[in-house]
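Here is one chain, start to finish.
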Amino acid sequence: MSDSPPEPKHKPARPLNRWGMGTLSVFQTAFLIVVVIALNYLAMHHYARLDMSRSADYSLSSATTRYLGSESLTGRVQPVKWIMAYRRSSPFYERTRALVEEYARLSKGGIVLEIVDPLRSPDRMQEVTAAYGLTLVRDLIIIDARSDESPAITEDANQIKTLNPNVRLVVAEDMAVYATADGTRRIVGFQGEDVLTASLVAAIEGRPRVMALLADKSDMEKQEGPSPRKSLEDTLRFQNVALEEIQLSGISAIPAEISGVVLAAPRYDLTESELAVIERYWNQPRAAILVFAGTGGMPPKLRAFLRANGITPRNDRVIAREKDALVTAARGVFTKGIGFTRDLAGQTTEFGGASSSLDVREGAEDLLNQRIQPMGLIQVPAGFWGETKFGQGGEVFDEMEDHGPPLYLAASVTRGAESDDRFAADSSRMIVISNADFLDPKHHRAENLDFLASSVNWLVGREDLAGIGPRSLGTYKLPLLDAQVSFINRINLFFLPAFLVLIGVFVWSSRRV
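Its structure:
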């Protein structure tokens, strides 16, 4: 009989250390809490914002972004205070809130934002209305850029209240673009960034800059409805620049409060005394001149003044031939000439209407000796030429009579030590554009209006606002037939709930097996 194998010996069970397990659980829980708090802290202070919309609708333009990081905001002792008083039911509440929060974020403390709902916070809204003298509560944004203890509102002896020049009110209706069709006025766009940036600049500066339109020498009259004059005024207004008319004849000097002068499509030439006024103004520090060439060419005395500063407008028409078809809308490429065109450099554009060519004497020694530096800003590409006999038929480039490359559609002139930071602020600046028709609404192009806005800001010494400007956002209607609406309703009200019920039944039955 064989011996049976010995039974295995079992080790005695170790006693359960509940104290150790409890302590370990406490440490794990505490560690998890610390990790969660640390992650939230890092996410709050170090994060990246991504605009996933198709057209970057929630991103600010380069011009606004550059201004928010400029000395105008970062150099302030007190930040600019923004109060967004909007009802949550307002149609533009979400978009406006995202917009103002982006302003505050990019300003890096230069803007302090407060959002108030008049319906949910009536006490705070009463404080705001009392502080700023508001009598009618509307959806608005208050931009308060006061740097001292001056009151937000003053009242004179006639009990007329005046808002502080460093305080601006942006009403919700001002940020909407309206159109009237069939007697119905409806919202067709949103221009919040345009209005907010212009109001921010106006609040910080206190009052708008003024550019004088030489009305008796410019062919740009006021008209009802959309017009080149209104386009120019609107572009300047969004840069916090007001356009005012003055008569060149009869004055001995350009007023000192004028930040620049505008000559738009001049038809009549200058007299000797008027030319002397322009020359005296140009030879003084911080002069700014904006010239648009008209379809009739440049008058002789004005052309001589421009030629003396390195830019000669020619009596021609920039055209090209493509597949035996005559192209009369001039094309151009923005150069890398001056800092205010850096966002547009390399991009192509087109000028509708009549464009003449400019001869720009870049780097001419005689001009450099006078501290005059002309520079081409928009160059005509190959294939175009300056036709001197446009309209006579059979336009073909003739190297003996016509003008070949290089041709320019716009150019700048600086007079003074522009490259020396110590004296750059006292230099004089000029922009010459060989086309005035691009201001006509039917010829509008976004890049041309951005170029004009950047040119104006450069002329008045506000380079921080130069660049690609904001875009007006449009609203779109999705036309649906009654049958399509009915189909969508059936999906939402029947098919989707039924699908979810089927999934629930399947899960329930699988668990019973």
